[in-house]
Specification:
By secondary structure, the protein is an alpha/beta fold. It has 16 helices and 13 strands. Helix 2 runs parallel beside helix 3, helix 3 crosses helix 15 and helix 9 packs parallel to helix 10.
Length: 398
Amino acid sequence: MAEKISVIIVSQNDRLRELLEMFLSEYKAEFNVIGGVNLSSDFNYLIDKNDKAVFFIESTDENTDFIKSISDKFSNAKIVIIKENPDVTYIVNAIRAGAKEILGYPIIKTEFIDILEKVKQQFSGEFKNQDKCKMITVFSNKGGIGKTSIASNLALELAQTTKENVALIDLNFQFGDITAFMDLQPSFDISYMFDNLNLLNNDFLLSTMEKYKDTSLYVLADSPYFKPAKKISAKQVTRFFETLKKCFSYIVVDTDSTFDEKTITTLDYSDLIFLVTIVNLPALRNCQRCLGLFEKLGYDAKKTQIIINRYMENDEITASDVENLLKKKVYWKIPNNYFALMASINKGILVTENNPTSNVAESYKGLALQVSDSVFRNNLIKKFSPEDSRRVNKILEI
């Protein structure tokens, strides 16, 4: 028998608790209702931090700090907010605090049941269709500027922020670094996956990809041991990512720096390309060339976003200078912190784990929030405040 999902209802409204418990009584086989509690309850006595659990929290404008504390403490929990007429600002703040869904009040049973079904799918790994997956490729045509660090830390933060299944794919055959960055020795490598494309399905992927510790991040990298490079066709790459998109909510891809067939196909297939540069003239000229090529490939301007790595505020070349040179706004700046990054790399631990309070770790977390916000916020805003959807980007300062 499958493990039941614990349900904790956080509300002082007796009628609301009774209504939710009545709806949940139809799902006794899948959900175990622990009971109604209030904000001051000690949840450690109710569930273990790694238990499968869903919190239904009746919310006010002031308790987003409480939502964040639950999200941080219970890494495997899904948080559903219940609120009457939430506005745009509240929706954004609640998502950033860790909420997965917002349920309007008074509660409509069909909407409540839809959320229960989503929670069941998320915990079972029966993930989503292609339209709901977001694929992000981290790219630069210049090596040694931190692509792998960005891809690895972004993927981990996305998994921890959204609590959904995230795939981290290392397409740098032969010389990929993800296994070293994360201290992994995977049982199956990406070459094996391409050799067995006919077997690819949800169960096969989740059982062969390397699950990273107790997170919802799944890693697929090449072997840490040297192997001859394999010729991978565009058709193989397309089929591979088509299958992945059916199983994961996010895919983060770390590519090599060459414009070969597999890389261009990956870029074509991506929803978002993070073009990484550092602030020096050779790197910026390479970045210019990439933007020119992407334009020739017909990529929408919003698909490609600039990330400055190892950024220093007092540098001779400023972010404004970069924007003027590239004629494109900088999407994100990751600060320079050599000691925090090298300490993590040498330990085989990502910086967001090894030094989570460092400025660079906070920046990775902010980047993940920015990416995940763009997926969830518009659906929720259209649902509750369709007339406010134009205000979202301004509120989030994108």
